[in-house]
Amino acid sequence: MSRREGSLEDPQADSSVSPLPHLEAKIQQTHSLARLLTKYAEQLLQEYVQHQGDPFGLPGFSPPRPPVAGLSAPAPGHAGLPVPERLRLDAAALAVLPPLLDVVRRRQAELNPRAARLLRRLEDAARQARALGAAVEAVLGALGAETGGPRAEPATAAAAAIAAAATGGVFPAKVLGLRVCSLYLEWVSRTEADLGQLAPGGPA
Amino acid sequence: MMDIFLCLKQPSRMVDSKRMRMTSNFQWILLTFLLLYLMNQVSSQKKRTPHDLKCVTNNLQVWDCSWRAPSGAGRGAAYEVCIENGSHSCYRLEKNTKIPALSPGDHEVTINFGSSISKFTLNEKDVSFIPDTPEILNLSADFSTSTLHLKWNDKGSVFPRHSNVIWEIKILRKKNMEIVKIMTHNTTLNGKDTVHHWSWTSDMPLECATHYVGIRCHIDDPKFSGHKEWSNWSLLKNISWSSDSQTKVFPQDKVILVGSDITVCCVTQEKVVLALIGSTNCPLIHLDGENVAIKIHNISASESSGTNVVFSVEDNMFGTVIFAGYPPDIPQKLNCETYDLKEIVCTWNPGRPTSLVGPRNTSYTLFESFSGKCVRYKRAEVPTNESYQLFFQMLSNQEIYNFTLNARNPLGQSESTLLVNVTEKVHPHTPTSVKVKDINSTAVTLSWHLPGNFAKIKLLCQIEINKTNSVHELRNITMKGVENSSYLIAVDKLNPYTIYTFRIRCSTKPFWKWSKWSNEKQYLTTEAIPSKGPDTWREWSSDGKNLIIYWKPLSINEANGKILSYNVSCSSDEETQSLSEILDPQHKAEIQLDKNDYIISVVAKNSVGSSPPSKIASMEIPNDDLKIEQAVGMGNGILLTWNYDPNMTCDYVIKWCNSSRSEPCLMDWKKVPSNSTETVIESDQFRPGVRYNFFLYGCRNQGYQLLRSIIGYVEELAPTVAPNFTVEDTSADSILVRWEDIPVEELRGFLRGYLFYFEKGERDTSKMRGLESGRSDIKVKNITDISQKTLRIVDLQGKTSYHLVLRAYTDGGMGPEKSMFVVTKENSVGLIIAILIPVAVAVIVGVVTSILCYRKREWIKETFYPDIPNPENCKALQFQKSVCEGSSALKTLEMNRCTPNNVEVLETRSMVPKTEDTEIISAVAERPEDSSDVEPENHVVVSYCPPVIEEEIANPGADEAGGASQVIYIDIQSMYQPQAKPEEEPENDPVGGAGYKPQMHLPVTSTVEDLAAEDDLDKTAGYRPQANVNTWNLVSPDSPRSTDSSSEIVSFGSPCSINSRQFLIPPKDEESPKSSGGGWSFTNFFQNKPND
Questions:
Q1: Which of B278, B358, B380 comes nearest A53 by C-beta?
Q2: For A112, which of B305, B309, B319 is closest by C-beta distance?
Q3: Percent of chain B scored above 90 by pLDDT?
Q4: Hey, how many other C-beta atoms are within 10 angstroms of the C-beta on B1064?
Q5: pTM of the model as a whole
Q6: Of residues B460, B481, B595, B465, the one with CA closest to residue B540
Q7: How far is residue B55's CA from residue B122's CA, in Å, rounded to a whole number?
Q8: Interchain contact, A113 vs B304, CB within 8 Å
């Protein structure tokens, strides 16, 4: 896992002589990472819910979906957008997610200091989201599409906003953390689907 | 009055029935009316004057009196009030007047209103004390704690003296002002205006609903004897939370004690449809508007992330988290000590878990009261059962510390204290850098490093000294502590050339705790000279010319180093001669010596020097009084004992060897002090079941004398083989068995006897199973005399197979079996007797019968064989009349008229006539089976018909030639003429030639003869009266012809029988094998007996 991540965190390190196979490999590699992270995000969400106590884990429990500053769920029309545009949105969301996940982890460290696995998963998720976002940016670059470039401000602002929200109360913080984990899953799986459009053998 | 009225309304109904009673009631009514009238008159009189004087006070200094004005007095009417209060005081007042408080006691008050005067008696007791209505100065709320803070002034300055005040405060909730609580608060008036504070914590968050507060008071002046009454309630003040129209749940993130109750509310504009505590539904308590609350009773401890309380509205959800836990337990096992006298480490156990984590976790502060310093515990989280620890830097020149450990969390705090002198609580670190250095072969120096500044105290260190294959030794050393942490000591009383393992731990004085053991340090001490000479023994070689010196290698403790060689020397009275130097590991030397007595010396040498010599004399002191004894050991050794012998001045030596090994007999030896009388010989070489020889030597003046010779086993086992045994002799009723000794190696113990089993049985059918199971058919002989080597088994049955088993046994058990099958001889005498007796009886009977027959031969002849048979005497006729009547089988015995015939006797030399004759005679002779049994060459068939016999012996020598002489009896009756070619007629008359030939040829017709021949074929077949009785011979029934008992032709051996041919057989024929079957014998005699 870590070796995979290590290789993907610098996706442009491997230069290829032939650009097309290189692009395919990069897409394939990024798609695989997205698929793997989708699985991890599901596990994270499950682990998160388990540690929040009832009624979070109860079937049918639908907590509110508070808005997260700087990050929204994939829009319903996302699938109708051109693939590069979709990937741009994916990369933007993945860039915002790591600080949000860090805030969630810090709050969970107070609430569940002995839930080492949950804390580790949150920490990993932040790093993995960052890696996947960079990989998507690299794919966009390889495709010749315009990338969003570094967007530190929105991420920082989102983190500050959510940090403020998370300090309001434990219950809203739990709900917000759940929302962040859900958004993480949604965006990672969205990215996986979008990359699947580009991957060899995909619908695209 | 009602009764009266009713009575008046219904007089008619009562007149008749109750006239008398009505009269008395009427009188009572009249009296009542009269009384009422008088009272009305008095009241009217009063109403015309001031009346109902009442006085109240609110400060005990002024009484406020009032009265009812007389009727007709208008507003503003003036009254003159005079009070007799020691002095006469009059006031001109309107209706109410304030008068100074009167002294206790009655006072006359006169109120003049115009012409009317009213007089009252006024006493303090009639005055009511009603304090002024209190006023709430301020009502505030702490929403976080749901606490209301109330502030008011008691206005105590208006009261002349100190009094107790009871304040009653009421809390109302919601817009409909439901009273939630009424509480009292006591204060004291001190003559000054005092502002009072009062706080109240609501069980419901203040945000949930508007809360109202009112207050009144009651002053209890002990000197005032009038009525003390409550003041009026103050104006209500309220507290409400200004909602920002956002739905919120209160309280937020509340930390409460486990088991307590809590109310949680949801302030909302939307309709709440559901409330959950964790996963449990809760009933809603409706507050103002859409606000709702739920009540949680006896809440249980929360999990780490708290207990979620959730309110659901139609399309949203709001919630809060409650953290139910415990206040911190008193820190347990608080202990403060130091490792190095530089830093104090305090450890404690948190006690009962609080169920609160993170920011709500217990925080600890360690406070030292003498120095006023404190340290805080800054660890975010620790496992539940792990002890906590804090480090406190020691202060110079302070040895005694008074620590207070304070534990605090949102639910409370607790503390634990400890007063400690750190110099007595030193738990040193683990010693490190342990080093060893030589001093000499028995002493070393040991150095180590112990972190810390122990210059002011003493250290107690413990050195563990481990030697290979030895118990470890502990040595305690007290030393003064040093500042530089380096320590050095000498360790003596060690063994040379020995590997030691050292390790160290330290504590302080006074003792508190040992440090952990240091790492082990191994060291080999240097060598020293061997401490003693080797243990020696000597044996003469088998030829008696050489003396072999044996010695044992020195133990490690004795060798004190590596033994390099041994020096062997020999000395006599005259000289000492060093013989050789033997290198280790050889431990024997052979010296050629004469029979003089020599002293042999052996010394061991290592790199440092030589051992003291070990000496032994070459010759033995003779001892003739020896016998070999037996001994059995205890499994791992053998105990040898002997009597104390004061003559033995040196030590005893026991040597032993395997008895089956060849000379010289020496496996090992052992020396025992001369004052001993027993020893246990143990050796790893001892094996169970092996016989050893032990020799006990006593030592006297350097010379050894053999005292005892013992054979023994350390443990006896069962023999491995069975004794070989053979059968020496067998008779009809006994068997003599002999066996051999079992070799010592296979005996494996002292032979205690043999067990001999025997039973009847054949090989392959009899298995000697379960010898020990006590089978009754097995006989056992236990032979305990081990010198016995034979055994005769008697009382056996003749010609019977016996199964014999032999096994040997020792005290170690039974050996294997060896078995053998033997058949006893037949009992010949009995057999002979069994044969001879019947033979003798038969002979006697025969002889007697013969004698009788001989003596009665005339009678027999007359009776049975007269010359002319008398038909009257013919038994055949008797049979016909009696016995044989009706028996067709005996019809041959019917006597027919027998016509004598001429008999022609012919003799033929060739075989041809024989053939013809065969064709002539009866069908009996022609039976195929008979013909197959009889050789044709010797087949003589005689056809006979008496009485006229012409016999012609043409050639008497023919008998000797072996040719068969044939006598043919030719019936001269024409129709029975023998045919030249008999083969042409046998079918026409198969019987005629062979069957019965009447003795007298009566003139009968051929028809009759034919008929007779046809009817009595069998009857006529046999009978031939004999012309010459001397030639009679008895025919054996088992002769070839007579064996067929089923045949209709029955031969009785009488002259009537046609089978009486034996009378005609030449004497030589009786000797031939063919005729033997027809000879006279006992067997025949017995077998014919039933036919007689």
A1: B278
A2: B305
A3: 19
A4: 20
A5: 0.55
A6: B595
A7: 9
A8: yes
